[in-house]
């Protein structure tokens, strides 16, 4: 896995500030702020916005994102929030009674609550995976995925400590067992 170079220049963060609370309130890039200003200015005259403009930006962005993450364009969807996306995923995942839903300890709450509700409504079992000793989060997940796993839900990077999950390896093992794999990539 390669690491991207320092991206600090894209943000308006003073040199003497180290800001880490991005899971709660991440700073926006200066380009995002400019795009937001342009979008707000456009809404000063909403009668000039055509119906076709409503989907134009996402139609342009979906193939770019698909190319970036090596995915199928039709598999890319934009939603207003992670909790909305997770609820949508949960509504479309079939689990049998007794199947396991695996989540990580200290996972962001919106990526736990929806799976608790799904477990309760389907009779599946929610199982929280704890990292032990020198094991990685990926190792701990990989050790638990098996024939009874119906779903693995986690983030690529855990918000509490920055620990990474090897999503390619975990995803492969999920596919090997026919388990759904839901990622929070915020």
Write up this protein.
It contains seven helices and four strands, in the order H-H-H-H-E-H-E-H-E-H-E. Strand 3 (149-155), helix 7 and strand 4 (180-184) form a beta-alpha-beta unit. The chain starts with 21 loop residues before the first helix and ends with a strand. The model has no long low-confidence stretch (mean pLDDT 91). The longest helix is centred in the N-terminal third of the chain and has 17 residues, at 53-69. The chain has two domains: 1-78, no CATH class; 82-184, Aspartate Aminotransferase, domain 2. The radius of gyration is 19 Å and the shape is globular. It has a four-stranded parallel sheet with strand order 2-1-3-4, with helices on both faces. By secondary structure, it is of the alpha/beta class.
Question: What is the H/E order?
Answer: HHHHEHEHEHE
CATH architecture descriptor of the largest domain: 3-Layer(aba) Sandwich
Identify the CATH class of the largest domain. Alpha Beta
Low-confidence stretches: none
Binned, the helix content reads: 40-55%
CATH fold node name of the largest domain: Aspartate Aminotransferase, domain 2
Q: How many structural domains does the protein architecture include?
A: 2
The proportion of strand residues reads 5-15%
Number of strands: 4
- The CATH superfamily of the largest domain bears the name Type I PLP-dependent aspartate aminotransferase-like (Major domain)
Structural class designation? alpha/beta
**Strand order in the largest sheet:** 2-1-3-4
Largest pleated sheet = 4 strands, parallel
Number of helices: 7
End-to-end Cα distance, whole Å, is: 19 Å
């Amino acid at each position: 896995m390669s690491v991207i170079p320092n991206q600090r220049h894209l943000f308006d963060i003073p040199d003497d500030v180290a800001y880490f609370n991005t899971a709660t309130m991440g700073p926006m890039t200066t380009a995002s702020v400019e795009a937001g200003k342009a979008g707000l200015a456009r809404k000063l005259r909403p009668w000039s916005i055509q119906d076709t403009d409503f989907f134009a930006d996402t139609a342009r962005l979906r193939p770019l994102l698909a190319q970036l993450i090596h995915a199928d364009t039709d598999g890319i969807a934009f939603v207003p929030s992670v909790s909305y996306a997770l609820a949508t995923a949960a509504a479309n995942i079939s689990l049998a009674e007794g199947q396991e839903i695996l989540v990580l300890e200290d996972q962001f709450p919106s990526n736990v609550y929806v799976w608790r509700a799904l477990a309760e409504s389907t009779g599946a079992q929610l199982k929280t995976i704890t990292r032990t000793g020198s094991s990685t989060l990926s190792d701990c997940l990989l050790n638990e995925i098996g024939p009874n796993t119906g779903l693995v839900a986690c983030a690529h990077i855990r918000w509490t400590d920055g620990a990474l999950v090897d999503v390619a390896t975990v995803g492969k093992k999920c596919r090997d067992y026919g388990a759904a794999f839901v990622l929070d990539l915020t």
